[in-house]
Amino acid sequence: MTAMVKAEGVHKSFGLVEVLKGIDLEVKSGEVFCLIGPSGSGKSTFLRCINHLEKINAGRLYVDGELVGYRQKGDKLYELKDSEVALKRRDIGMVFQRFNLFPHMTALENVMEAPVQVKGASRNQAKERAKELLDRVGLADKAGNYPSQLSGGQQQRVAIARALAMDPKLMLFDEPTSALDPELVGDVLDVMRDLAESGMTMVVVTHEMGFAREVGDSLVFMDGGVVVESGNPRDVLTNPQHERTQAFLSKVL
Amino acid sequence: MTVDIDKSDGPADTPPAGPEAIKAIPVRHYGRYVTAVIALALLGGIVYAFSQGKINWGAIPDYFFNDRILSGVGKTLLLTVLSMAIGIVGGIVLAVMRLSKNPVTSSIAWFYIWFFRGTPVLVQLIVWFNLGLVFEYINLGPFYKDEWSDFMTPFLTALLGLGLNEAAYMAEICRAGLLAVDEGQTEAAHALGMSHAKTLRRIVIPQAMRVIVPPTGNEVINMLKTTSLVSVVQYSELLRVAQDIGQTSGAPAEMLFLAAAWYLLLTSIFSVGQYYLERYYARGSSRSLPATPFQKIRANLLSLSNRSSAGGNA
After folding, report:
1. Which of B12, B20, B67, B252 is deepest in the core (most CB within 10 A)?
2. Tens of pLDDT along B16-54?
3. DSSP string covering B79-136, please?
4. Which CATH number fits domain B62-284: 3.30.230.10, 3.40.640.10, 1.10.3720.10, 1.10.150.120?
């Protein structure tokens, strides 16, 4: 299997605060890769670096074999133009903790927006596909509703459909269930499980240890901007080797 | 303890159909009757005073649709619309300039807003009118060449004076609107591969409009009234025409009332337009839109007829 995401010594600072202190990891094609760790450990920041919402300060980050945000010629790095960055983002879907649906558009229009505006798909084609995707996340009957008329769980499922509409090769999930009422978490996780079974490469920042254990193929525990422990989720979660992992898991499990 | 007893007894006594509606004598608010009577008396007094004053009210309907008055109304409207167009376009440009990462453009926009907001619009109008003291000629190379006093007609003075001043206010309104849109929206759009321009046009501006439209409506109504200032630069808009007619026809005060009535009529029409525009941009922001006045009137009439029929039965 080839590496979909490859990080080599990734550093990221916000002003004087170093959030990522050298991350090395590899996400294989088709796997579900879970990132866990306490708040402020840098896991969300790392996720946002993958689609260049944050610029890294040092190291190298590759998606599907290509450098993120830069082009290398000889030993010189050239920053990519905004349009080139946008072109690469088309292939990377992202789901946010706070959904970030477009509130002035219906669920259907939210899903149609990027294919029509970015890929230049015809409205009819995009509409058919959007209906299919809404059906897939179990919201076929909510197509005409505005986000404010949907529950958090429904909004997040629309957000997943919106990301899938661009036919991404990689999906990033930034704590997709953290802003949801406990009873709504299950619906979203079901959709993600279904997506994982279809073979999508997924990087998931999550606090849902159950999901990580059942669906995850790899798991990384981050703390203080470094990878503390990694491996098979079932091994790491049941038998953590590192002291900090043990301390964290004893609190959340 | 009593609560427990009530609970055990309750279901047996009350039918399962639901609780009985409360019928109680409402509190009488005597203070309200008194203040209403006083207010009505004062209002009546004012109306009486005006009706007894030496004002020839009959002159107002006589001149209301006078050709000169109508042309003044037309010019007032034209000036309002064109000045607002300059103000809105200029305001958007200035707002984007102020929010841009380029320090030169953002400073220029800041300076523009500082200057045009910091000086009275009446002063600006007079300055534009007298700018011939600085520029004797206007020379746009092969396109246009003339003496300043010929180029700067009263209309152009009024338009530039009002429009450029308005742009400064609109810039702040637009900037507030753009900043009010959650940053997550931009991120979500970027994550989908949308460009900056497309994100602004498709995602940010439509949401900013909800914040921008209400104050812009106020600006339009303000502008309509502010156009009366341009009578000082010899432009024959509504107020100036009314004053001219007033002087020649010997009914100056009557013509001022006439102008006031026209301004009131026009601002009322604009307010209705603003209401529906706000409704349009509020879509998706609240779970159900508030009723339009027509819907409200219909609902009131329905409930009224229901009540009267119920009263008839009783």
Report:
1. B252
2. 567 888 888 888 899 999 999 999 999 999 999 988 888
3. HHHHHHHHHHHHHHHHHHHHHSS-HHHHHHHHHHHHHHHHS-HHHHHHHHHTGGGT-S
4. 1.10.3720.10
